[in-house]
Amino acid sequence: MIDLPAHAARAIARLEDAGYETWAVGGCVRDCLRGAQPHDWDLCTAAKPEQMQAVFAGERVLEAGLKHGTLTLLTADGPLEITTFRADGSYSDGRHPDGVRFVPDVTADLARRDFTVGAMAWHPDRGLCDPYRGLDDLQDGVLRAVGDPDARFTEDALRILRAVRFASQLGFAVEEETAAAMRRQVSRLDCIAAERVREELTGTLCGRFVQRALMQYADIVVAVLPELAPMVGCQQQNPHHRFDVWEHSVRAVGQVPAEGALRWAMLLHDSGKPACKTVDEQGVGHFYGHPKVSREIAEQIARRLRFSNEQTDRLLLLVEQHDRPLGDNDKLLRRRLAQIGEARFRDLLAVKKGDAVGQGTHPDNVAQLCETERRLAAVLAQDACLSLRQLAVNGNDMQALGLSGPAVGDMLDALLDAVLDGELDNTHEALLAYARARMEETHDQ
Ligand code: ATP
Ligand code: MG
To answer: Whose CA is nearest to atom 27 of ligand 1?
Structure first.
């Protein structure tokens, strides 16, 4: 039923030849059985850590996880995580098992896993080991906790966010009792490390079924992003918007490519709206100044969840500028390109398209953005000058004209502006002539 890749089959055979029962386990089995390509392969084995070390003596391995029973074998086909059959002790901090206990068989190992679809093991000769009926749940598209759901989420609250992520990635429905327990235990997410929350949320945002997951589990998402709670149910009372702020944002998330920065930007772009909402005499809602407030909220979230500086800068730019014109004419387009560069310009195009489609009212805006994209390609094809570096003159040329100190930089900036505005060709002669004329002008004044 499952075609094991050669490196996994070889490692299983080596451990079994040495007398230790070994299986492929978890996400890789789940993904193969649903016809998807696993992104990594995990094995579980009866071999204790030192026995694994003996079997793979002389191979390239990582031993950082060894005290929890995990040896990572670095093969030419990628890393393989191999873990001794274990049962996790209790989680008194709700985060880390207090101790791991090695157990003799695979069924006991599967009992510690969070969802039935990830609690299956596969062996090339022995076939599927599925004591929790994970295959039935997989075929029904159901995410169900192994054993008592409240106990599982109390042991490790991260599993609540893993469930939301799997719902978003796999499109599965969370079984009723499991979902109820997620909600009962949601406050326990407070003690989960920020980085792990970030990774699960990013995984959720990038899932294929993200819209459904974010609508269904809005309460769980806002439990870890409380700044976003006012978006849920915030009516826009505006002819340009059919949905409340949360639903609009969720729809916009689903419209941009599945890349973390873009999806986070869509989730947060209107987060400042509830705080900026006013209603005029006609009963129409307005949100003046919301991009700036959204940026502040995004910054707070990015710091708390420990986004890298690079990720934060990219996110904040997209959130703050999502409402600014990108360039309705070539002059403006060149200026914006010079300010933010091609990569961010394209990001903003994606964000603005997502926003426009997510509004559900204005197909013209989308058509306009497609036109901007076309003109962007044309401007780039002209190899237009967009930065000081690309100007056909430099500081030395300005000094040769007699300028010195800050006047050099000021003149180069003025030349670039004139080129961006299309007033001036980017040729050495034209630029020098323009500079000389400006110098005479200031001289005459
Ligand atoms: P993916 O790799 O696609 O995110 P996965 O199910 O493989 O999904 P991993 O984090 O790679 O998830 O973990 C591998 C297996 O380990 C899981 O299938 C599950 O059986 C178990 N597991 C991982 N994290 C937990 C956890 N927090 N609680 C219980 N079991 C877990
Ligand atoms: Mg995995």
So the answer is: 159
